[in-house]
Write a structure and sequence with these properties.
Layout lengths: L4 E9 L5 E10 L4 E5 L6 H8 L7 E6 L2 E2 L4 H6 L1 E4 L11 H11 L6 H10 L15 H13 L5 E5 L7 H16 L3 E5 L3 H7 L2 E6 L2 E7 H8 L2 E7 L16 E2 L5 E6 L8 H10 L4 E8 L2 H12 L1
Parallel strand pairs: 3-8, 3-9, 6-7, 7-8
Antiparallel strand pairs: 1-2, 1-4, 4-5, 9-10, 11-13, 11-14, 12-13
Helix pairs in contact: 3-5
Length: 308
């Protein structure tokens, strides 16, 4: 099956000479959630704007649903819903009329039942007749999502969808995104919250300095690049790590009460058994052992540092 979004050799240089995107190629499959991570100025918003036809690429080709973003703009745009970072809404209009108006902009016939269904999905039905200036910031973000869904797009772009909202509301938004995926919508989101990508994405894309560093299945990425740490709490603190243990590259805590061993879970041997034997040979007695997995944030920071 052809990808719902296909990007080939996309580059964008603005008039001032700033190159925001550098030869980006990416295929996005129908029904997946793709999270785009990257530092400020990495090119995430420029990439989304290019796919949505808001920015003209300097070079490259983009198709959505098989339609070229430039040559078949209207057909392409009809397949896309966009939720921008900025909350820009008519303050005195009602929720229902605002969402209905967005549907009309795409030439779609009136469908009050559909609009009410969308508002119900987003827990906005009881606010359908409320003026937008009466809503909280989180509710306004939900209205933006409802507007983007009003014309029944196949692809939904969320540009920093939970920026500035509290943790409880953020998790509520994650639940909404999962539900949209279940209904068949393909979702591409940009985010500064690493835990957001870790919680809801199927695949992770990392952008740095306008280049796509990688785009990989989340579980495979964490398995391939993630490492585990074993913390070894000691019965008696060490003033220094014995020379015989140097090959393990152990990290000693400041007070010497614990050692940390980092190992690759994908390797044929982790080295744990040998380490424990060598600790015993050195007369080092263990009080407790704990393990922890590298997070997506650790992987992201390492990759961006490596790229820069």
């Amino acid at each position: 099956m052809a990808p719902i979004v296909s990007i080939k050799n996309l580059s964008k240089t603005y008039d001032g000479g700033h190159q925001a995107l550098r030869d980006v190629s990416l295929d996005i499959e129908e029904g997946e959630i793709l999270a785009l991570l990257g530092p400020n100025g990495a090119g995430k918003t420029t990439l989304i704007s290019s796919i949505c036809g808001l920015v003209s690429p300097s070079r490259g080709k983009i198709t959505v649903g098989g339609f070229d973003v430039i040559d078949d703009y209207r057909k392409c745009r009809a397949l896309i819903g966009l939720v921008p970072q900025e909350i820009v809404l008519e303050p005195f209009e009602t929720v229902f009329r605002t969402v209905s108006f967005s549907r009309g902009l795409f030439g779609k016939p009136r469908n009050p039942a559909l609009i009410e269904n969308i508002l119900g999905q987003l827990s906005l039905l009881d606010k359908r007749n409320s003026a937008l200036n009466q809503l909280s910031g989180g509710m306004k973000r939900r209205v933006l999502i409802a507007k983007a869904l009003s014309h029944e797009p196949r692809v939904l772009f969320l540009d920093e969808p939970t920026a500035g909202v509290d943790v409880e509301l953020r998790k509520s938004m994650w639940a909404i995104v999962r539900e949209l995926k279940r209904s068949g919508v393909t979702i591409i989101l940009t985010t500064h919250y690493i835990e957001e990508a870790e919680a809801i994405a199927d695949r992770i894309g990392i952008i740095s300095d306008g280049q796509l560093v990688l785009a990989e299945d989340k579980a495979a990425l964490m398995g391939r690049l993630g490492s585990k740490q074993m913390r070894i709490d000691l019965q008696t603190p060490l003033e220094q790590v014995p020379d015989a243990l140097e090959k393990y590259e152990l990290q000693r805590t400041e007070d010497g009460s614990a050692l940390t061993f980092t190992y690759d879970t994908q390797g044929d041997r982790t080295g744990i058994t040998a380490l424990l034997n060598d600790l015993g040979s050195e007369g080092i007695r263990i009080r407790d052992v704990q393990t922890s997995q590298s997070s997506l944030e650790d992987i992201f920071v390492d990759l961006v540092k490596e790229k820069s």
